[in-house]
């Protein structure tokens, strides 16, 4: 769970690789369902019929949970496709989340603005995504080419993939190799408006600020910048609308991950680990919508607790007072939630004043 929490911290040096979290802005999936009630011609003494939830293809469901799951898979998912051309044009997604999974040899074009996007187990696919207001979460993909405009790119277990990228924050790779990065080249007529709707500034592009969780010494063995003479633009709807800026690589030392600043965290949003399945994520959204309770807390924490920012206590002094160790964004730590006995692994998402931190738990 991402949020400011109370507790003691210590460096998690024993961890071999940090697990990233995935942020989501809200829980909208589809328009409100149609409800069917008893006919007005019936006698007033009759009971109202059970409400029905009707999907966009006319299929009816008795529960909202069943309807939402079906509607999401029907309208906001491409799954189990092979050698197909798949597309969603302007207005078809309109700010909803979107998923792609288990596709091979497909061309997938999304010329609309989305919330968070999950991309899982794609092989030899070519993907175009016009604007995502949150993270694009890519897992277990190989030999694919992606054209993505998003708040942040997060990848894991990807191999031999090329990313033409617009990113508002630093892109992240983990347990991946053979990755190439280039600035987003291409566009479509409505992209400027869609990026505005997604709160993305096309003039500010951090495509080059790659953070590799598995390259502590910056060897650059897992990824590289694609040479300019190898780059190919893509305008899937025709035209030459190049909206996104294509700056050269900048000074890595000035990136938020190196200066202790905000590393693209999204406060107040649900978070998912890299091992979260599509069904598990959907189930979490449904449960969150069904209640007004806050998001789940780390294991062992009281179910009704809310985690306010609290200063991390200094280590006990021995002979002389010792200065409390400070942490920066992306430091891997263990935290004792609300000064409890158990430690939970996590990553510093944001370093706040006075040695307070937002922690993304694993």
Molecular structure report:
This protein has 362 residues and is mainly beta. 10% of the residues lie in helices and 29% in strands. The chain contains 4 helices and 21 strands. It has helices spanning 64-75, 191-197, 256-259, 278-290, and strands at residues 2-4, 9-11, 21-24, 53-54, 60-61, 77-79, 85-88, 98-101, 107-114, 117-120, 126-139, 145-156, 162-167, 172-173, 179-183, 211-212, 223-225, 270-273, 332-336, 343-352, 356-361. The strands form 5 sheets. Strands 6, 7, 8, 9, 10, 11, 12, 13, 15 and 17 form a 10-stranded parallel beta sheet that branches. Strands 1-21-20-19-2 form a 5-stranded antiparallel beta sheet, with no helix packed on it. A two-stranded antiparallel sheet has the order 3-18. A hairpin with a 3-residue loop joins strand 20 and strand 21. It is globular.
Average pLDDT works out at: 75
How large a portion of the residues is in β-strands, by DSSP E?
25-35%
Helix/strand structural class: mainly beta
Characterize the quaternary organization of these chains.
Answer: single chain
| Distance separating the two termini | 8 Å
Q: What is the helix content?
A: under 10%
Largest sheet: 10 strands, parallel
Radius of gyration: 23 Å
What is the ordering of alpha helices and beta strands? Answer: EEEEEHEEEEEEEEEEHEEHEHEEE
């Amino acid at each position: 769970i991402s949020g400011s929490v109370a507790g003691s911290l210590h460096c998690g040096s024993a961890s071999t690789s940090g697990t990233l979290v995935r942020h989501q802005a809200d829980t909208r999936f589809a328009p409100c369902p149609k409800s069917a009630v008893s006919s007005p011609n019936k006698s007033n003494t009759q009971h109202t019929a059970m409400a029905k939830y009707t999907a966009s293809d006319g299929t009816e469901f008795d529960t909202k949970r069943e309807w939402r799951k079906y509607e999401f898979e029907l309208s906001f998912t491409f799954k189990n496709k092979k050698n197909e051309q798949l597309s969603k044009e302007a207005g078809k997604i309109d700010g909803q989340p979107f998923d792609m999974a288990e596709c091979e040899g497909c061309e997938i074009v999304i010329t609309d603005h989305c919330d968070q996007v999950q991309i899982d187990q794609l092989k030899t696919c070519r993907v175009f995504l016009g604007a995502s207001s949150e993270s694009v979460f890519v897992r277990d993909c190989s030999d694919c080419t992606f054209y993505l405009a998003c708040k942040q790119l997060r990848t894991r277990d990807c191999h031999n993939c090329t990313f033409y990228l617009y990113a508002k924050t630093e892109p992240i790779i983990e347990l991946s190799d053979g990755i190439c990065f280039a600035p987003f080249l291409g566009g479509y007529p409505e992209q400027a408006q869609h990026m505005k709707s997604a709160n993305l500034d096309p003039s500010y592009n951090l495509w080059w600020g790659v953070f590799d969780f598995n390259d502590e010494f910056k060897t650059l063995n897992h990824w590289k910048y694609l040479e300019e003479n190898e780059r190919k633009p893509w305008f899937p709807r025709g035209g030459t609308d190049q909206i996104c800026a294509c700056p050269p690589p900048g000074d890595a030392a000035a990136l938020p991950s190196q200066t202790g600043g905000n590393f693209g965290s999204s406060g107040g949003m649900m978070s998912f680990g890299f091992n979260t399945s599509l069904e598990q994520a959907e189930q979490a959204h449904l449960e969150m919508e069904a209640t007004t309770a806050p998001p789940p807390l780390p294991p062992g924490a009281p179910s009704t607790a809310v985690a306010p920012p609290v200063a991390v206590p200094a280590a006990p002094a021995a002979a002389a007072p010792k200065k409390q160790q400070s942490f920066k964004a992306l430091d891997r730590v263990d935290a004792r939630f609300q000064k409890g006995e158990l430690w939970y692994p996590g990553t510093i998402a944001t370093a706040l004043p006075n040695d307070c931190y937002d922690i993304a738990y694993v």
